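It would be a great kindness if you could assist me with a short task in structural biology. The matter concerns a single protein, recorded as an amino acid sequence and a row of backbone structure tokens. Kindly check, if you would, that the fold set down in the tokens agrees with what the sequence suggests. Thank you for your consideration; the sequence and its tokens are set out here:
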Amino acid sequence: MTVAERNVLTRRAASVSLLYNITLTILKLLGAFLTGSISLLSEAVHSATDIVASTIAYYSVRAASAPPDEEHPYGHGKIESMAGFVESVLLLLIVVYIVMEAVSRLLHGAQVANLDVGIYVMLFSCVTSYGTGRYVSRVGESTESLALRSNGQHLMVDFWTSVGVLGGLLVTRLTGLTSADPLLALALAVWIARNAAKLSYEAYQQLIDRRMEVAEIAKIHETIRDTRGVISYHKLRTRHSGNAHQIDVHIVVPSEWSVVQAHDLADELEQKLSREFVPAVVTIHVDPYDPAKEYPA
């Protein structure tokens, strides 16, 4: 996949997510108003926050795809990491709100009305949030966009919470048990908090320049070792910047080689690694072989 193709996919997925969340939030707010359900209201607040998250994802993938410039010579990839972290904070704020409202309902009681409206709204939410969430997540995985992956997780959380709210409304509809609504809201809060913690950890790791995954690093070692002319290599460093892979390494070449030969080999290796890890920024440092030195095997 080329960088241009990636940019088209990420922007399209971010746009779909944003438009979907706006539509769903309006429906859930209407359903919550008509039914008085705290679990449905929690879902509406969740979706409203998803609008903010989708907006962040939409603008972050556009900003992160901008080429390096004079003030940002390493590009803008970390904008996506920051966006993912902000989204996780928004999820935690939702948890606080849901817990406060659910506890209040349990202590003081509340009636739920017009349950059929809420049931139809949540049934629609279940079907559409699953399809949209899977689409956004697939694009996020294929393009390695943390912002879209985070947004896709938001949508999949939306699917599962919608299933839970639908089940709670059905229980209330069939049994008249009004406490099922706030109890379900508390269960949703635990689920959302778990996902928020996971998202924040992943975003934090990218912001502090954690290395690439073990399997990816193993592939880098394999690619370097399979490149003819490389005697040895050392000082391999990797990190993620948004969706981009940052790789730099020192290679050892025969001391009798000309500058042109060494440069051509470095170019060849850079191109191999760039094709293997799209998009990637690869920097190869060339060292002449010195028999007095010990090199890694």
Remarks:
- Strands lie at 232-241, 244-253, 280-288.
- The longest helix spans residues 3-35.
- The radius of gyration is 25 Å.
